[in-house]
Design brief:
alpha+beta, Rossmann fold, 2 domains, two-stranded parallel sheet, 20% strand, globular
C-alpha cells in the first residue's frame, strides 16, 4: 500500500519508535532501579523524612543511616506550613523543622555538601519560591530540569472530568568529581 495512508502509518510508527528510544535514553537511575526490582519481583524501600527535623545535621545523619540500612532512595520533604496537606505526623515534623530555622536554600546546601562526588540529587519543587531556588541551583550546577503535570479524575456534576494538580518542577543532578 502506498499513498497518504501508508505515509501516515509510517510516520506514526516512526514517532512511536522515537518515543520509546527517548524514554530508554532518558531513564534515570531511579527508573532503572524500579525496572530492575520489578524484573526480580521485588519492591523498593523509599523512606520519607522531613528535612530539618529536629535539625539539618541530624537529618543528614538519618539519611546516611537509611542509605547504609539499604534504602533504595530517600524522599526528603521540605517543611512548609499547611496543616491539611500531609496529615498530623508530617505537619508536626514540618513545624519542628520550621521552628529550627530550616529553609529550602539551607536544605539544598546541606544535601549538596553531604553528597559524594558521583552521587545523584533529585529535587521536586511545587511552589514558585522553591522553584526559584531550584532554578538558581540548576544555573550553578547544571543537571536536568523536567516539568511534570498530572491530572486527576474528579466529579463534574454527574460526570467525571480531569482536574489539574499542582505541576512539579524536578531537578536531577549528579555531583561532579573534583578536577
Amino acid at each position: 500500500m502506498s499513498g497518504p495512508q501508508s505515509y501516515s502509518r509510517n510516520v506514526v510508527s516512526s514517532l512511536a519508535m522515537l518515543k520509546r528510544e527517548q524514554k530508554l535514553q532518558t531513564m534515570n537511575r531511579i527508573g532503572k532501579k524500579f525496572t530492575e526490582l520489578k524484573q526480580r519481583g521485588e519492591t523498593a524501600l523509599i523512606p520519607f523524612i522531613t528535612a530539618g527535623d529536629p535539625d539539618l545535621d541530624i537529618t543528614l545523619e538519618i539519611m546516611k543511616a537509611l542509605a547504609e540500612a539499604g534504602a533504595d532512595c530517600i524522599e526528603l520533604g521540605i517543611p512548609f506550613s499547611d496543616p491539611l496537606a500531609d496529615g498530623l505526623v508530617n505537619q508536626l515534623a514540618a513545624q519542628r523543622a520550621l521552628e529550627a530555622g530550616t529553609t529550602v536554600p539551607g536544605v539544598l546546601e546541606a544535601c549538596w555538601t553531604a553528597l559524594r562526588p558521583g552521587g545523584r540529587l533529585v529535587v521536586n519543587a511545587v511552589t514558585v519560591e522553591s522553584e526559584a531556588v531550584v532554578l538558581r541551583w540548576h544555573g550553578d550546577a547544571g543537571g536536568d530540569l523536567t516539568r511534570i503535570a498530572v491530572d486527576r479524575a474528579a466529579p463534574v456534576g454527574g460526570f467525571t472530568g480531569w482536574r489539574p494538580l499542582m505541576p512539579v518542577t524536578q531537578w536531577a543532578v549528579t555531583k561532579p568529581w573534583p578536577p
